[in-house]
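Collaborator request, handled under Task 6.
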Amino acid sequence: MVILPHFAMPQLNKTRTVRIYLPADYAEEARHYPVIYMHDGQNVFEPHLCISGMSWQAGEHLDALQQQNDFSGAILVAVDCSSDREQFGRRDEYSPWPYEPQPALANWSESAIAQGGEGNAYCRFLIDTLKPYIDQHYRTLPDREHTTIAGSSMGGFISLYALLTYPETFSQAGVFSPAFWFAETAMKTLIAATSRDFLMDWPVKIYMDIGTNESSDPSNPAFPALYYDLAVDIADQLQQLSPAVNCRFDVDHEGIHSESAWAARFPAFLQYCFTNGHTCFATK
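Structure tokens returned to the collaborator:
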């Protein structure tokens, strides 16, 4: 694991910790590897950094898949989330649009707080600053076909936005437990406005999932239905958008909104995105 504790984010005038997982054979091989960019980096690898005490165990899952001999490995780059304004700074960066309160959340205390709107600047950081650094310093396969973005909740929300807005950079997205309640109308409008002809030039692959018992606030009974119903709606919209959109949608019955659930489903995402034609290439 390589940790960069004060990586500059000029698009947001901030710094952030970036965590880089390298395949077990990285030092011994001359291969170039696909790259997965993830959000909430403090939750991706190390359980002791997570409030829940459980991480995605992403490194272990990547190692296990590589040992099965149908996957040649990947570099995983995880960016810690913002600690500004408690949870609201994270939502600021993980949505390009301001929060649109759902009618079912009209009386939720957090609905009165302005949030969101920095998501495009965050994506430009990933594309214009972080990715060039990673491609320069590590043996990557830098083309779009080998560049994936993934995250959960608001991280899933921004991953889908990034994929549809910048398909020349990303070809795949992992959209775990997406928080579409944050800006449902804006996301559906983005999908509807995405040209079929445009996507034929930039085909994309999406892994999306949802649990039936997801919540961002256990005291608010509206959340499980919001998470589930909106994920079903948007998965259906994506699947009908274009033949160039390959969208898998999984339902985790009784699945909750936590790292333990995402860790359990992470191998399915890896299998779907990386065991059908994705290989690493040795340098000549």
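The cover message to the collaborator said: "The chain has one domain: 2-277. Residues 119-137 form the longest helix (19 residues). Please let us know whether this matches your experimental observations."
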